[in-house]
């Protein structure tokens, strides 16, 4: 695997390509891509994502899953309750409760927007920050219908080989076949 900075530079160029922006050449599949990277490169990737928002050659539509997760809990005044529940009942109970309270479809609802434009690139990050509450493969199963006409890029700290997701290069996340590998 090449240097992360080189890969990110190439990725930025990829985001401007006409076929990429229009989901052409995918055999009628939805343009959902996974950009996997070594978890040790997390801070470099975060810096790249913070700068890409100002890009003018394409329109980055960024979503951090952790922010969606926290905002949902904060809006319902549940953050303190979650902390208290964890102290009282343990992490496993909290994990089970939150998986029920915040299903993958809710994340998709929070990311939906009208008037997709040519040049939009939906960027999803924060995958590792919300583990184990939400697994990316279940969210991606729900996202295809909402973003058929714009590319979706998931920044994944771990490995994706075209069928298997391995978060942090340690945890088998699950099999997922509907996404494309973006930049090996």
Which helices and strands appear, and what pairs or packs with what?
Elements: H1 4-14, H2 18-21, E1 32-37, H3 42-52, E2 59-64, H4 65-75, H5 79-89, H6 91-101, H7 104-111, E3 120-125, H8 136-143, E4 152-160, E5 164-167, E6 171-175, E7 180-181
Parallel strand pairs: 1-4, 1-7, 2-3, 3-4
Antiparallel strand pairs: 4-5, 5-6
Helix pairs in contact: 1-3, 5-6, 7-8
Name the features.
alpha/beta; 21% strand; single chain; 184 residues
Would you give an account of this structure?
It is a single chain. It contains eight helices and seven strands; from the N terminus they run ααβαβααααβαββββ. The protein has helices at 4-14, 18-21, 42-52, 65-75, 79-89, 91-101, 104-111, 136-143; strands at residues 32-37, 59-64, 120-125, 152-160, 164-167, 171-175, 180-181. The model has no long low-confidence stretch (mean pLDDT 88). α1 packs parallel to α3 (42-52). Helix content is 41%, strand content 21%. The protein has 184 residues and is α/β, with parallel strands linked by helices. Strands 1, 2, 3, 4, 5, 6 and 7 form a seven-stranded mixed sheet that branches. The chain is globular and about 55 Å long.
């Amino acid at each position: 695997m090449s240097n992360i900075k080189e890969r990110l530079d190439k990725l930025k160029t990829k985001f401007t390509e006409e076929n990429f922006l229009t989901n052409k050449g995918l055999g009628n599949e939805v343009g959902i891509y996974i950009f996997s990277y070594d978890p040790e490169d997390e801070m470099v990737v975060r810096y790249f994502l913070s700068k890409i928002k100002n890009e003018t050659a394409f329109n980055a539509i960024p979503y951090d899953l952790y922010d969606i997760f926290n905002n949902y809990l904060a809006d319902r005044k549940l953050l303190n309750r979650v902390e208290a529940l964890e102290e009282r009942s343990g992490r496993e109970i909290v994990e089970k409760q939150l998986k029920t309270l915040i299903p993958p479809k809710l994340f998709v609802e929070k990311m939906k927007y009208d008037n997709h434009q040519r040049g939009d690139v939906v960027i999803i990050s924060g995958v590792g920050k919300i583990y184990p509450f939400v697994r990316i493969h279940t969210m991606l199963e729900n996202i295809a219908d909402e973003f058929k006409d714009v590319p979706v890029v998931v920044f994944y700290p771990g490995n994706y080989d075209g069928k298997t997701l391995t978060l942090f290069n340690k945890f088998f996340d699950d099999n997922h076949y509907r996404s494309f590998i973006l930049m090996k």
